[in-house]
Design brief:
It contains 14 helices and no strands. 46% of the residues are buried. It has 332 residues and is an all-alpha fold. The protein has one domain: ABC transporter involved in vitamin B12 uptake, BtuC (Orthogonal Bundle), CATH 1.10.3470.10.
Length: 332
Amino acid sequence: MNVRCRHLFFIAVLICLTLAGFFLSLKTGPVKTPSGEIFSLIFHGRSDFSDIILNLRLTRALLAYLTGASLALSGAILQGYFRNPMADPFVLGASSGASLGAVLSLELGLSASLPGLSAQGLMALASSLLLVSLVYMISRRRRFETQESLLLTGIAAGALASALTSFLLFRRADAYEQAVFWLLGSFALADWSQVKLLLLALLPAAAVALFLAREMNLLSLGDETARSLGCPVNSVRKIFLFLATMLAAFSVSVAGIIGFVGLIVPHAVRLISGADHRRLFLSSALAGGFFLLISDLIARTALSPSELPVGVVTAAFGAPFFIYLLNRSRRS
């Protein structure tokens, strides 16, 4: 089977698995929901459990799926941007900046919010975007800007933001319990406004990324080669960096910090769909959505009636798989 056929088959399988994942998510919860009630709601628009299914379980499942798709697409973009398979959505400090903003909102007792964003989420979004912007501006001050300087500046800024976050949590031990689920990721407070917000961020970002996928293929050959083939390297790099940052920042602002999705999903997809970003971007988004949908289902059922932070589940799956990928690449 050639790469194109394998890619199409993979997309079809992903869609089927995702539909099954949504069905399980709608069916599973503290209140037992017969399968017939879900079908009745789908085909007839009515069910005795419609409020639970639509306003609790469906919103949560959709938010998990959209967050996973956003993180995976962001990771695929940044791995191509840096030509580094170790890059992930948080490599430039987006997660550390968001953590600092969320904990700072607890420290200051902020209550202002916007549709889809709590005070914590709003501060997380703003501080995440601010930190990445500072990282970009600092790296540009070098005489010779390189992707390596941007990467190293992001790592340093992220470490500083993490240190400040730890300091604030140390000063306010009473805020730790309130912050921990957000710092490890959770969809427990999902609502329709968050779903709409993330959808408005993901759809245009995905459309632009797919439109510029050919340029990303050229960037993977090196900047000089890309320029010789007619690619406006500087402009394209800025657009891709903006898209990846926005996807990561909006994901963190609604769901907290969820690791490994943007790191391992593009890796795994690349093994099936190949390195062509015209296929990789779409496949990564679909696979990331499915992965986080299932991870959230496990998070809320594994220790029922208690609930795990979804970041714990993604790390439990992601870390061993990432080690496997590293060993596989070394053997090849």
